């Protein structure tokens, strides 16, 4: 809400901002829209310059307002990443909150292993991939999602017990 005390103070403030205030009446201007209209300032559009309002976090998340500007801080809000052998990329809610996670570890062919995931809501896909194992005949790897925080991986080999490198990738939100 913009409140103007009198014509003199409004003229001084707007004059320092570079607006012409000659012959304008400010006393009745009680909202931003009325104040802008009273001095001839227009809203910004794709066709021309003007003033524009900043989007709130809720505006950005909704993704439906085409009249407000998004600041760099709002664009980054909710984005995070940990890049390494084991890591993740988390996209903000305005990009559906999609999260990618990955990692690697050694797995014995004699036991299944639980993998810790960090999805806040859901894990949609978990893909274990078998690394290089000498004499790969009769080798299988399988896995499935147990919950948004856990997946289970098993490695089966027709020969003697051995370990195998497992690389995994998961998608969720």
Descriptive key words:
173 residues; 5-stranded antiparallel β-sheet; 4 helices; Immunoglobulin-like; rod-shaped; alpha+beta
Estimated structural class: alpha+beta
Lateral strand order in the biggest sheet: 3-4-5-10-7
Low-confidence stretches: 1-8
How would the global form be characterised? rod-shaped
CATH domain topology of the largest domain: Immunoglobulin-like
Which percent band covers the strand fraction? 25-35%
Separation of termini? Answer: 39 Å
Alpha-carbon Rg, integer: 29 Å
Question: How many separate helices?
Answer: 4
Helix content class: 10-25%
Q: What is the N-to-C order of secondary-structure elements (H for helix, E for strand)? A: HHEHEHEEEEEEEE
How would a textbook summarize the main sheet?
Answer: 5 strands, antiparallel
Number of domains: 2
In the CATH hierarchy, the architecture of the largest domain is Sandwich
In round numbers, the mean pLDDT is 79
CATH class category name of the largest domain: Mainly Beta
Number of strands: 10
